[in-house]
Fold this sequence. Notes:
Blueprint: H1 15-21, E1 31-38, E2 44-46, E3 54-56, H2 61-70, E4 75-81, H3 98-109, E5 114-119, E6 132-134, E7 137-139, H4 140-157, E8 161-164, H5 171-181, E9 188-195, H6 202-208, H7 228-240, E10 244-248, H8 254-263, E11 268-272, H9 274-285, H10 291-305, E12 309-312, H11 315-328
Parallel strand pairs: 1-3, 1-4, 1-12, 4-5, 5-8, 8-9, 9-10, 10-11, 11-12
Antiparallel strand pairs: 2-3, 6-7
Helix pairs in contact: 4-5, 9-10
Amino acid sequence: MSFPVDRLRRLRKTPTLRRMVQETHLQCSDFILPLFVEEGKNISIEISSLPGIRRFSPDKLLHEIEEIISLEIPAVILFGVPENKDPMGTSGYSEKGVVQQAIRLIKKEFPTLVVITDVCLCEYTSHGHCGVIKNHDVDNDATLELLARMALSHAEAGADMVAPSDMMDGRIRTIRTALDEADFCDLAIMSYAAKFASAFYGPFREAAESTPQFGDRRSYQMDPANLLEAIREMVLDIEEGADILMVKPALPYLDVLREARTRFFHPLAAYNVSGEYAMVKAASERGWVDGDRIMEEILVSIKRAGADLILTYFAKDMARILQERKRGN
């Protein structure tokens, strides 16, 4: 069939018709909200490059969690900002670490919220890299034990899931083995399986105070030009025991996400990262774009490409809109 018999505009005529044939739907349950937890007390500071996003000390976190739950967002992922850093990132796997404190506090007060933790050394090392430095480079194998210790400390504090973001070879197997040997065989791993060396991470590095003090992360994060290598990374992480695969960033790598969706049956996550968020907020504040419409278009595109879960700083903004629509119906 073709025009004039076939007229696709017939089903676009009214808002109700458009909703009836809409193919991709966002839900509050799609979202995971990143939270930055800073060591100390009475801290609630907006991050200048991430409007609307704050760093909280553990004692100030509960009010934020109450709002998250009221918006029906099912999960958060925690990033730590410690008082003290050293070359080995020891505060990252300390029982008294800031993330470990936050996990215990959240799970005590809000046991149904899914608490995911970022497992990486960059926020805790004085040099800002994601692992142990030897000969002015990150030593892959020396880093694995520390990542496993961090994941185990999060599990012992009560985390529901750990998310290794370091991009060391073999880290999923090492963490899975450590968790299983400690009787945490039911604790899930969401792997940052395809994490690219991206320029979109800038605002996050301010938020987490994790900018490398020398060099860059291109020797361990992925080359943005490589799709097949991303698939290899995902295959290896599945073999090593990952439960969920993540693509990061989201927008420049929707093709990677779509390719993963066609190949794998594992749940897929995509991280709508800080730079993607900040660009929309900055343009919206200047009146150049309709921020809410662009936000929704971006999130729909990520889900349409194949994501089951979306880590996004837009989670609260989008959840409010979805709840308002539900009430309006």
